[in-house]
Write a structure and sequence with these properties.
This protein is mainly α. α3 packs parallel to α6 (85-111) and α5 (66-80) packs antiparallel against α6 (85-111). The protein has helices at 2-11, 24-41, 44-53, 59-64, 66-80, 85-111.
Length: 116
Amino acid sequence: MVPLSIHFFMNIEISSIVANQIDLTSYISLVRTTILASGIVFVLPVVILVLYKMGILSTDTLKGYRRYAYVLILVASAIITPPDVLSQVILVIPLVLLYEVSIFFSRFMKSNHITE
């Protein structure tokens, strides 16, 4: 996702009069922000399993709010990524899979009574 973001911002042009002046600070800031935001978002299964173990979430709740979670994932990926559909899809697909894996693991923990 970082190469797509860099390519997008290197080629964006406001007008022919305004030239892109990209310095090392803005480059590092873009890379750092993209990696940090993606890293935080990809911790989703851990957060869901911790909330499940604390009794805040249940498997039925996760399944019931699946549609809302998908919308939230789409909105978050639209905010994190540049306005490029490909980079948004690159982020959405793994997040949806991670959400579904979280539901599977919480169901597995429920069926095996793993609470400690």
